[in-house]
Amino acid sequence: MTASTDARMEPVKIGSLTCTPLHPTFAAEVTGIDFSKPVSDEQIKDVIAAQERFGVTVYRNTALDDKRHVEFSRQLGELEHVPKFSGPKTVLRFAYTELFDAGNTDINGNIVQKGTRRWWYNKGNALWHTDSSFNQHRSKFSALLAHAVPKEGGNTNFADVRHAFRDMPEEKKAELRPLVLEHNLWHSRRVAAPDEYQAPTEYELAAKPPARHKLVQTAPDGGETLFIAAHAEYVVGWSKEDSQKLIWDLINYCTQPKYTLSLQWHQPGDLVIWDNRQTMHTATPFSDQMEVRDMRRTTVFDDGPFAWGVPEKPIDQIHEKPIDVPAVAVPA
Ligand code: OGA
Ligand code: MN
């Protein structure tokens, strides 16, 4: 999976940033930002340009804390708030409602025990996905910051969906262009944990209804890409069986080794930003009952022309702001 070094892997300058490619078609490790100070608006433009060009950008050893992680993320756009799916009795782990808990500890920092609902929920992260595709207002960037990393394993793998789509034969692309997918968070939970999520609670279902987005979309560079994830349950108008066959054929196609990269987290402070509009990602195993992996994520709303997909009802009737009860933070 590790790409070899060749002429295309030379560092690229984007304004004040130096981007060293990690794969022949996407992803780069970026230097040139001093995270000990607020990042200037000028540099933010370079961050976004690097992001849109590479899809995945890696900033090592930033020493960011929660406050500065959130402040930096706000400079990239409006942030999602943590969805509150778990009912009124639980409380958030972090002071910022914009911080999703993508780690394996509970509110007290103890390891989440195998077999608990939260543990099963996290299983869904080990399917190839793009964050928040189950929201009618989709997200463009995710910024995941490591606070504690395991000694071994726990890489995050990424796929260059944009490049994979562009390699498809023209007839296949033409077949896919008219299709709309229905994404449902509870579908991906059920795929990953069939018994636990056989019947999501009424509260969960009401808190997160499905959302619809076109399958073939325009990437930031103006070319075409796919918007696909394990959250996708139906091709609108198709049977479940036919839908799942196409969706998983496409996910498997896009995640062939030549389109993927396995990203190792080196230390606390490593920050990885990915573009949910043109990549997919997946968590990978580590000894999650022995070691703490503390990862915190901000998620930036898409503000482009495809942000609201193809909703079934007028967007002013869609309520996707956090439901007003305290609840435990869960990643997606
Ligand atoms: C996420 C996610 C994967 C990981 O935070 O959205 O999917 O490796 N994380 O933690
Ligand atoms: Mn994710």
Automatic annotation (TrEMBL):
The keyword Flavoprotein is annotated on this UniProt entry: no
Superkingdom field: Eukaryota
Keywords assigned by UniProt, alphabetized: Dioxygenase, Iron, Metal-binding, Oxidoreductase
Residue ranges annotated for the TauD/TfdA-like domain, each copy included: 20-299
Keyword Oxidoreductase tagged: yes
GO MF entries: dioxygenase activity; metal ion binding
Family: Belongs to the TfdA dioxygenase family.
Record-given protein name: Putative alpha-ketoglutarate-dependent 2,4-dichlorophenoxyacetate dioxygenase
Organism: Calocera cornea HHB12733
